[in-house]
Amino acid sequence: MSAAGVKVELKPGAYKSGLKPVWCPGCGDFGVLNALYRAMAQLQIEPSNTVILSGIGCSSRLPGYVKTYGFNGVHGRALTLATGVKVARPELTVIAVGGDGDGLAIGGNHLIHSCRRNLDILYILMDNEIYGLTKGQVAPTTPTGDKTKSTFWGNPEPSVDPCELAISTGATWVARGFSGEMKGLTEMIAAGLEHNGFSFLNVMSPCVTWRGDDQFKEMKAKVAQLPEDYDPSRRANAVKYTREKDKITTGVLYEVEAPSLTDQLEDIKERAMAGNGSPSTKEMLSSFYPSF
Amino acid sequence: MPTRDLTFAIVGSGGDGVITTGDMLAQTGASVGLHVMKVEAYGPQIRGGESSCTVRVSADPIYAQGDLVQVLVVFNWADFAQFRGEILAAPDAIVLYEEADDTPRDQIDLGPETDDVRWVPVPFIELAKKSAGTKLAKNIVTLGLLSELFKLPQEPLELAIKGKFAKKKPEVLEANLKGFEAGKIHASKISDAASGKRMQYTPGEPMLLMSGNELSAIAALHAGCRFFAGYPITPSSEVLHLLSELMPKVGGYLVQTEDELAAIGAVIGGSFAGVKSMTATSGPGLALMTEMLGLASMAEIPAVIIDVQRGGPSTGLPTKSEQSDLWQALWGSHGDAPRVVLAPADVEDCFHATVAAFNIAEEAQVPVIVLSDQFIAQRRETLSMLTLDHEVTGRQVPSAGDLRDYKRYKETKSGISPMSWPGMKGGEYQTNGLEHTEDGSPTSMFLTHEKMNAKRYRKLRRVRDKYSFYRHYGAEKADVGIICWGSSKGPVKEAVLRANGRGERVSAFVPQLLYPFPYHEFQDFIKTVSEVIVVELSYSAQFYKYLQTFLDLPEGHTYVYKRSGGKNLTVGEVEDKIQKVLEMSAMRREVLV
Fold first, then answer.
1. I need a surface site. Which of B46, B121, B361, B518 has the fewest CB within 10 A?
2. Where is B237: in which H helix or E strand?
3. What are the pLDDT digits (tens) for B305-364?
4. Inter-residue contact B274 to B422 (CB < 8 Å)
5. Which pLDDT score, from 0 to 100, does residue B166 have?
6. How far apart are the first and last CA of chain B?
7. Which of A50, A285, A292 sits opposite B159 (nearest CB)?
8. How far apart are the CA of B391 and the nearest CA of chain A, in angstroms?
């Protein structure tokens, strides 16, 4: 608010923290960060009512670069921290961010359960198909056969499609983006923030250092759009755009309305408190007198 | 001669209504102001299997489970055999056992001294069938029998039965009341057996009957906790259960998470967001939480973790008590991670320790572990409402001046920096598991790391200086002083008071603040005693070794009594050690003369 009480419009730059990103030049995560600044400005999100949480990895450094409340936690646990923030303070805007190793390997269990609970937050997973910070090991999204620092003879394991996982475990908004597509990505982040429930955004975000200069070009060549008449409310439609080999279809694959965890907990609170004030300690203790 | 103190044990299998019988007995005692302590024990089975319920009822305050059972009810000797060495009959116990169970007496092990035991066969099944039409009523028959034999209050028992069957068909209630009558009538036929064991007491005001877990849950709400995240684990789950009912009633929120990692993560998140938050677990869960305890230390986020200890390591003895999570609670960490460890010593303490844990966590912005254990967490005992109040404090909020150029981790003399939370304009900051500067920015600089470590540890000094939680029992100057912690306190206190009653100079010291180490309080105690006995239920003597790191225990005058958990400490064990050390001490004095 200005001195006159008139709300000052926040420009994307107003969300910058001033801390310089540690990312390598050309890292896809810059694109995600810039799209986030723009989406926040588009929705005029109040920085002091916003919390961005992350785990560990290159992309998990992101909270430090946004002028909101931020939490760079421990590896794989961004969603657990986000669960606490959102449940304890439902009125806050909560965003969790991280990479494919953080969210799908060490933190995979929390992703499944955050989807299932329909936790009302936006989770941006920056997918570079590799462990970057630990210098180039195989990740759950690395294609089979790829040589990495830890798969000398080629990756012996199949990869996971994060969007397919999110859809199948209960996320109510699932989208795929590409860090090289600023406009589409900004729109998706804004839409995800506005959705009531668990919004899962998988962003293909190339790693110039460990996946080579060509990863960006290869991804860009594969990017495709959903058909214009696409209906995201049907799971069967969405699943068709998962596990794609030669394409990276971007857009909102899946979107349905369902009560979020916040809605459910508010309902419980209302029922529990119905007509009564909050009981005092003495009243709660009194129920432990013998019942006769 | 009547008695003022009686310990009952009821043993059978899951379907025998053993727990209901014990519950009603305990509630009846509480309803007329008697002091009651009720302990349940089970096998690891989910349903069925052996179960036992021990209820001590006394006209005077009690501090321990009765070592020896004076009245033993056995529905099935095969189930009783599963508690061998745990349920021991007093030398003159009365044993009321199912007549239809013809297990030979030489196959029954009641304990070491049972020559004068009165064996009384009772046709429980037959009485139940005849009076109530079903053998299911044998627990109600038992209640009638016990109340008549030992002069327990019958009116509250009848009310309890009516309450229990109020929602069933009227015939069911009627049948059970008949069962109760049948028990009373049978008692009159065998009343001689109960001589010397009839209760004498003056009825008083009703008392609360609660477990440590229940008190921890309500204490958290009293302290202002409005967010709880937890994962089910024996023997802590009652905290989760009770809070799932009460938390929304006070306007708070609760989540049962997918694992303990998520539970502690959510607690840290909730607390970061400005809401007092807690989790409860047992040893295996605390192990999973260890990494994020370090996060709470590093990011200076208040968090309360209740660890209800059970036998370990690994899955260990899930339903039984032990004091072997001490080192894990104190030192389980990578890096130098300051935390505070509190240990409630009895059921009532679970209330005070939990509120104190919140106060300390919020004031010093550290994780606080409340080391409870199965014995105090799951046993129910009588309490007075009057003792259950505790001052509540909160965290230091930034001033308007602080927020103009906010530094979350500002250097201060106490080490404590004012903490903002989301919604506070100007208070935005990024917190971090990485080492960080005063404003929260990540750094790997040695100098900052050293400075910040010092800041984080400095906060503990304040905790140590402000809080002094310990108990001191017995003689001011003593020949023998016992040091123990947690649930060992009950039997130790009772043993010390008995020794004092005999004129022996014995005392006990029980710290409830375990870390930061209350050095001065320990020193002051040690100065008042000639011989020290450290008592604990940890095979590797974790507590004794912990004391050694900070204290010079008197050389040649320090004894350790330690053993595994799985069986609660008894008064007899403690008395035995006191006697031995007293003798040793006297012998020494003779030699010196």
1. B46
2. helix B237-249
3. 999 999 999 999 999 999 999 999 999 999 999 999 999 999 999 999 999 999 999 999
4. yes
5. 87
6. 46
7. A292
8. 12
Size of interface A-B (CB pairs under 8 A): 205
The beta-carbon neighbor of B269 closest among A81, A288, A289 is A81
Task: Give the strands of the sheet with B253-256, arranged side by side.
Answer: B253-256, B227-230, B277-281, B303-309, B367-373, B340-342, B513-515
**Residue B16, pLDDT score:** 87
Contact yes or no for B273 and A51 at CB 8 A: yes
Cβ separation B429–A69 shorter than 8 A: yes
Would you call the peptide bond into B232 cis, given omega within 30 degrees of 0 as the criterion? no
pLDDT of residue A208: 94
Average pLDDT over residues B372-379: 96
Task: Enter the tokens of residue B228.
Answer: 């709880």
A138's CB contacts (< 8 A; 6+ apart) are A130, A131, A146, A148, A149, A150, A151, A155, A157
Q: Say whether pLDDT at A5 is over 80.
A: no
B208 to A288: CB separation less than 8 angstroms, yes or no: yes
Residues in CB range of A80: below 8 A, 6 or more apart: A110, B257, B261, B262, B263, B264, B265, B266, B269
Q: Is the CB of residue A206 less than 8 Å from the CB of residue A28?
A: yes
Given a cut of 70, is residue A2 above it in pLDDT?
Answer: no
Number of domains present in the structure of chain A: 1
Q: Matching CATH topology for B5-194 and B209-387?
A: no
- Token pair in block for residue A152: 């000398």
B591 pLDDT above the threshold of 90:
no
- Per-residue tokens: B568: 């609660």
Asked whether residue A157 is domain-assigned, the answer is yes
**CB environment B98-120: b (16+ within 10 A), e (fewer):** beebeeeeeebebbeebeebeeb
Nearest residue of A to residue B424 by CA position?
A: A48
Q: How far apart are CA A97 and CA A54, in angstroms?
A: 5
Q: What is the pLDDT of residue B163?
A: 87
CATH number at residue A41: 3.40.50.970
Residues A200 and A115: beta-carbon distance below 8 Å: yes
Q: What residues does each domain of chain B span?
A: 5-194, 209-387, 400-466, 470-592
Regarding predicted confidence, which is higher, B335 or A213? Answer: B335
Q: Does the complex come out with an ipTM higher than 0.95? A: yes
Inter-chain CB proximity A279 and B425 less than 8 Å? no
Output the pLDDT for position B113: 87
User: Residue B593: its pLDDT value, please?
Assistant: 53
Both structure tokens of A135: 């210098």
Four-residue CA torsion sign, B64, B68, B73, B74: positive
* Closest Cα in chain B to A1: B425
Tokens for A184, please give them.
């589409």
Residue of B nearest to A263 (CA): B253
DSSP H or E stretch at residue B544: helix B542-550
Phi/psi class of residue B355: alpha, beta or left (left: φ > 0; alpha: ψ in -120 to 50)? Answer: alpha
CB atoms within 10 A of CB B378: 27
pLDDT in tens, B536-545: 999 999 999 9
CATH homologous superfamily of B209-387 equals Thiamin diphosphate (ThDP)-binding fold, Pyr/PP domains (3.40.50.970)
Collapsed DSSP state (helix, strand, coil) of residue A213: coil
Q: What is the pTM of this model?
A: 0.96
Which top CATH class is B470-592? alpha beta
Instruction: Give chain B's radius of gyration (CA, Å).
Output: 26
In this predicted model, what pLDDT tens digit does every residue of A244-288 receive, in sequence order? Answer: 999 999 999 999 999 999 999 999 999 999 978 899 999 999 999
Residue range(s) defining the domain that contains residue A206: 12-259
Residues of chain B contacting A291 with CB distance shorter than 8 Å:
27, 160, 163
Which of A67, A69, A123, A278 best tests the B interface by mutation, with the highest count of B CBs <10 A?
A: A69
Q: Is the peptide bond before B516 cis (omega within 30 degrees of 0)?
A: yes
